[in-house]
Design goal:
By secondary structure, the protein is α+β, with helices and mostly antiparallel strands. It has a single domain (2-90), classed as YaeB-like fold (2-Layer Sandwich), CATH 3.30.2310. It has helices at residues 6-14, 21-33, 39-45, 87-90, and strands spanning 2-4, 50-51, 56-61, 66-73, 78-86. Strand 2 (50-51) and strand 3 (56-61) form a beta hairpin.
Length: 98
């Protein structure tokens, strides 16, 4: 898969969340090597990922300390990073609107 807007991940860990760098990098490397044909492929690898409408997928990162909201285009093999933040920040947003 092609991961779009990697800069968003880097900005997050450089802005006071240094402990998120390793798990976000690990997720990025796995996503780049993945070939997800549909949501079932994501759930097979990430059992705790949440699937929303419009191909949005929420990943738990760093032992559920952080959340990553993405939009996955299974046909074009792309993953757009929409939002990354702490679990507490995630609780204050609408994941379908970011």
């Amino acid at each position: 898969m092609r991961v779009i807007v990697l800069k968003r991940l880097r900005q997050f860990w450089e802005s006071g969340h240094a402990d998120a760098a390793q798990p976000l990098r690990a997720w990025y490397l796995e996503a780049m090597q993945a070939d997800w044909a549909g949501p079932h492929d994501i759930k097979a690898r990430y059992a705790h990922a949440s699937l929303l409408g419009a191909n949005r997928v929420i990943f738990n990162i760093g032992g559920n300390k952080y959340r990553l909201i993405t939009v996955v285009d299974y046909v074009r093999k792309g993953v757009l990073i929409r939002w990354v933040g702490t679990h507490a920040e995630y609780d204050r947003i609408n994941a379908e609107e970011v």
